[in-house]
């Protein structure tokens, strides 16, 4: 016997569609453990043929950036347009890239 | 008696009656995710019933339709196992806890899914090609039903004191009804002789193995069986089927030529 949980932990669900190669975040759900979270994700998030593969991860395992720090984290990239590969001339012989 | 249509009706009624029963959880599930899971199971079962009724209707011909078979036959004409028509609780005395007891729902789904996972697999080789095709589709569905109900059986049985007591009570209540799986019936014998059906006696050892392994993991005790053997598949039902059919059939009977 294990201790009964009054509240089940939260899990984040990632589903890979037939077309895509990557798993995309599609929502979250409550479940007692990982195996159950996977079963429930199947019933909740793949009812309309959305997926061919599911990942679940406990929400608390995700370390997220702080929205308040958005300025220092992301704004400095705004004026560095030279980081985009748009300043090169591609030789004819390379063809389509 | 027609070996094919009678046997198909037995399979179809099983699916429809359990589908209707499980649909009672829609909007009342213990948690949102289970509410959706049970509705998914019901929709699978009703889908199986539709395919089988359509096949019966095409064999019978005339003005028989899937709707006529589902909505315009009465209790004594249904051929489902008695197990599947019982309400979601034990006898309304003693250990009864609620009118919708999830332990009862899970135990029943487990006992039936364990049988159908074996039967659909065997029916893939049916001499009736349409039934074999329905079996192939249904097998995938029931494998998930078995996985879902077995998972919960273990969680409830090997869970808290309360969940263990209720799961064992549900098992004690429902297990004797599984005797009907193995009881001889003329319809099944005729279907087996025609190569359409499967002799369930050949599946019993595998069913026992599935059940015993799950019960051991769930720390539940397999009840001794004996006494009355139900005969739902021969049209002799409990008092519960009439109420289930009344609810399920009322709309179609109030609007006999309605379409939706």
The gist of it:
In chain A, 18% of the residues lie in helices and 21% in strands.
Task: Describe the overall structure.
The complex is a heterodimer of chains A (97) and B (260). Chain A is an alpha+beta fold. A 3-stranded antiparallel β-sheet of chain A has the order 2-1-3, covered by helices on one side. In chain A, strand 1 and strand 2 form a beta hairpin. The termini of chain A are far apart. The mean pLDDT of chain A is 89. Chain B has 10 helices and no strands. Chains A and B meet through helix 1 of A and helix 2, helix 5 and helix 6 of B.
Which helices and strands occur, and which strands form pairs?
The complex is a heterodimer of chains A (97) and B (260).
Chain A (H helix, E strand, L loop, with lengths): L9 E7 L7 E7 L3 H12 L7 E6 L11 H5 L23
Antiparallel strand pairs in A: 1-2, 1-3
Chain B lengths: L2 H21 L8 H29 L5 H6 L30 H22 L5 H29 L3 H14 L4 H4 L3 H8 L10 H14 L22 H15 L6
Helix pairs in contact in B: 1-2, 1-8, 2-5, 4-5, 4-6, 4-9, 5-6
